Amino acid sequence: SKATVSVLYWHMNGPALADDELAVWTVVIGLVVGFIAWVFLTEKNDYECNESPRIGLGDVLKESRHGALVLPPLMAELVAEKPVDRLEKMKSLGREKKKNQTKVDIESVTPEGCKPLLVFVNSQSGGRQGLALLLKLKRLLHPVQVVDLAKTGPNDALQRYSVFSKLFVLVCGGDGTVGWVLSAMDSLNMRAPVAIMPLGTGNDLARVLGWGAGGEGESVADILAQVATSHVRSLDRWSIKCGDQRHQPLQHWTNYVSVGADAGVALRFHKHRRHKPRVFFSRLVNKFWYMRHGIAAFFNQIKPMTPPCVITDKMVLECDGVKVELPAGTAGVIVSNIESYGGGATGLWGGTSVVDMNDGQLEVVAVTGVLHLTQIQLGLASGIPLAKCSKVSFKTTRSLPMQIDGEPWTQPPCTVDISFSGTAAMLSRTRGIQDEVLLRITDVLEWAEQKGHITPDQLSVILNEACSRKAHS
């Protein structure tokens, strides 16, 4: 109100304002307050994390659509205990099967229909959204099921939950967080299926698995219910070795690897966020800064007297052992495993060919600069196809920016080798008749494996083929 503005101004400056000055200050302060409120509401409603009345665990299990994912109190206590203490707990309850039993069988106390869920949340992702989501998940599930990756790594929780043969994992974060958890599971030889609640900037893997870009205003309870009814899809995993590996942030990847133009923009964004984290307080603002660095790179590229940003003479590319000539003017090379790139662009490969994340093949394309990347983002162009292969190798003669799944760095001259390393089980949101059929097929195959009619390897092969045929249908 005008009275409020007058009082504030008097406290700051002394003399009262004239009516016309008062009107101007009222409008200015109103716009500033409105902008702050808009940013706050936009962040808060990315996922519906509003306070809700506390209800008992029994009510949750009986009435909620995600009740099958909630660990009952006894199971939660056993998971939180050390292995030796678990056995003592089971003996005190008379649940041990053998007198000299040395390993506890937690699944012997698992209720029928229970689908144990382990949740990893990067509370530093998505501005304040990550922390709000962490608190909401601890209310909807048992607190022992929710792990804050900002405080501890995923390995300890994965080891404690490895006692479950049928475990679901939910990762709340960006593509980098998902890759971190998948790498931890690889190190522990775990193959639990993983769902994603996207909190990052790009969220490309979440997009192709049907979990969206994040921030569609869905309630957390609804997403948990969709996790409970999701179906399993296989995802190719790839290993990468860059020289002596001292500089690269990851040894395995799932989305894409790039060198040159787009990695340069990602590197500038990464350095800016690391030095001034306070100005990166929401995903919307993060995208603005990313766009700003892209525009700066474009104008730097066209600036007079600036050396060209081409890498044609700085890189030698081989695909499946065959040398591939880079087109004239190539400013970047992208090696892709999934259909979505750079925050939702789906026309990177171009043409009518389907990019399958489970065919053991990589798509290699070239781009000519930042303007070309922008056209791809807007759906106005596609990359320049170079090869579709199962092994990629390239040698650089100068230091160049590189990125793996959105994690950028500057790589000194070296030889980079990319090869297939296995598959990961992912959870895809069930939508439409085809997904419903695939979900039923998965249930039948898992039943057959439990009964010993098929082996785990046979289950994996059949599921991979079913998912591949669905992707090409």
Record keyword descriptors for this entry:
473 residues, single chain, 6-stranded antiparallel beta sheet, alpha+beta
Please provide a written account of the structure.
The protein contains 15 helices and 16 strands. It has helices spanning 2-13, 19-44, 57-63, 73-80, 83-92, 129-140, 155-161, 175-187, 204-208, 220-228, 261-275, 283-302, 370-377, 432-450, 456-472, and strands at residues 117-121, 146-148, 168-173, 194-198, 231-242, 252-253, 256-260, 315-319, 322-324, 332-336, 362-367, 384-389, 391-396, 400-404, 407-411, 415-428. The radius of gyration is 26 Å and the shape is globular. With 473 residues, the chain is an alpha+beta fold. The strands form three sheets. It has a six-stranded antiparallel β-sheet. A six-stranded antiparallel β-sheet has the order 12-11-10-7-14-15. Strands 2-1-3-4 form a four-stranded parallel β-sheet, with helices on both faces. α11 (261-275) crosses α12 and α14 runs antiparallel to α15 (456-472). α8 links the parallel β3 and β4 (194-198).
